[in-house]
Fold:
Amino acid sequence: MTNDILSLLTGDVLEEDVEMTLAELCRACQVSAETVFELVDEGVVEPMGQEPAIWHFHGINVRRVRCVQRLQNDLGVNIAGAALALELLEELEVMRERLRRIDN
Amino acid sequence: MEFKDYYAIMGVKRDANQNEIKRAYRKQARKYHPDVSKEADAEKRFKEVGEAYEVLKDPEKRAAYDQLGSDWKAGQDFQPPPDWEQGFEFHGGGFTSADAEQFSDFFETLYGHSGFTQGYRGQAYKDFQARGEDTHAKVMIDLEDAFLGTTRTLTLKHTELSADGRPQLKERTLNVRIPKGVRQGQHIRLARQGGPGIGKGGPGDLYLEIEFRSHKLYHVEGKDVYLDLPVTPWEAALGTTIKIPTPEGSVDLKIPADSSGGRKLRLKGRGIPGKIPGDYYVLLQIALPPADSEAAKAAYREFEKTLSFDPRTHLGV
Structure:
């Protein structure tokens, strides 16, 4: 037993508070800027701002980028396929939520 | 140590050819991918299938595995034969693409910690540095916690490499603030609380996914909160004021006259708090009193006589 009082950790809510630059998104997802450009072209992530230098991304994009990466690495799908899967998964999530409510 | 039946995990016969194995793997991987499947053990199954494929796709590892014979059953206590490893010369490298640290003791005993690739890996990883892995965990909270904010003490298990390079299960405890206004499915990012980095690479981040315990009164959709409110036919027809619960305490709700079943009444801004707070919805459900006494039956007959009500005119028959 230790008597240490655990310090209280405070984080950011990814979907609410977090906004990041291109560099921060690349670091958070461990991908190159080129990969992010590709994902922007594919519509997986949507930057705010006109050009890459002033791009800002909503925090939720961290999860989208990482999910696409996992689908690519684990299942061998290409970016377009992963983007499609991601969209369908998000739709599925909404429907599952609705179904859960009806079932209750 | 438990024997693992890689053929059964993959769902193929022992004499399956490489193409059949590849197809089976693709199918299983899609089915159990943790991003895709919502089954509770999806991640475990996905790793198992990955491990099985790691062995079966590699002719050397597969031949070595087949050498154990077909008499073993999954889950049976297993010790490798004493002359194991002597009869084979393993090359590795080209075939080991997966993260071997994730694999089972069984795999490790047969093929070594990094799946035959110590030499290869050692070279590649010399002076190597990488940011630690991002880790994920779920936090269960009650809906009321999202209205007030709370703190949670979490005990997380993670694997760490010990000095001799073997993975060890470690536990750590974190005290985390859950901010007011979080919603189901959102993620709290705790910077630098993830897996440790290699070399000069810093630790990864920890992501906590918020999950609401199901509530006996309310259900939640995004930031909106819903209550099913049973009312009597006369309350719905004549209108009234009813005391109802909300996660922030009870309020008086005015039921307008001529309300039908399923009517949605909105209390603006009384949902989950935030910059733009959610709304609180009350769904009216008209409850019929049972006709379980002569007096009740008489009252229903009185309705029938007085109201001449036909809810089926639109059916046209």
Remarks:
- Residues 18-32 of chain B form the longest helix (15 residues).
- Confidence is low (pLDDT under 50) at residues 91-97, 114-126 of chain B.
- The two ends of chain B are 72 Å apart (CA to CA).
- Residues 111 and 239 of chain B are 75 Å apart (CA to CA).
